[in-house]
């Protein structure tokens, strides 16, 4: 009888050991899985997270590019159905009183030619952004406004001191540009820009 009891206790002890071993194995597996996308110490773990992050960034860039292209196509389609020279133009002026005077001069030329001048950004087909390096918000604000126009499919003409000083500033790569001594050619620049051409009128 005592032998039977000893056998039973022995079997129970072996069973408990086996259960504990199984629980430890499960814990180890969970720990390994949780470290795959943590900071990790191995090259394999680092690659896992880096690859995932890169794919997300590429996907976002592709989505943003597609949105911009769609907005620009819709804008181009709308412009094609309007009589040339009657499209809507909006001016955004930064800076000093001299810059404001230049904008008023260009607005007058465009109005005489038949263009419609608007104050609402959403109504415009082309934005003329007259910049100044004397009195103006930060360059980041100026470039952000260009990006806003580009992302909504607006045609863009950059005028004034900034393109005159440095036409290679990041963010202006595809913009038409007109310098401070060429503002009398604004009608020509706007007309060609609305056709989809990049026009640069600068005296360096």
Characteristics of this structure?
6 helices; Rossmann fold; six-stranded parallel β-sheet; alpha/beta
Fold and architecture overview:
With 204 residues, the protein is α/β, with parallel strands linked by helices. The chain folds into two domains: 2-55; 82-201, Rossmann fold, CATH 3.40.50. 56% of the residues lie in helices and 12% in strands. The chain is built from six helices and six strands. Helix 3 (97-113) links the parallel strand 1 (88-93) and strand 2.
Strand order of the largest sheet: 2-1-3-4-5-6
| Beta strand count | 6
Percent helix range: 55-70%
CATH architecture of the largest domain: 3-Layer(aba) Sandwich
What is the H/E string?
A: HHEHEEHEHEHE
| Main pleated-sheet profile | 6 strands, parallel
CATH class of the largest domain: Alpha Beta
> Count of helices?
6
Number of domains: 2
Structural class: alpha/beta
Write the layout of secondary structure elements.
Blueprint: H1 2-34, H2 43-80, E1 88-93, H3 97-113, E2 116-117, E3 126-131, H4 139-151, E4 155-160, H5 161-165, E5 176-178, H6 186-194, E6 200-201
Parallel strand pairs: 1-2, 1-3, 3-4, 4-5, 5-6
Condensed summary:
The chain has 6 helices and 6 strands; from the N terminus they run ααβαββαβαβαβ. With 204 residues, it is an alpha/beta fold.
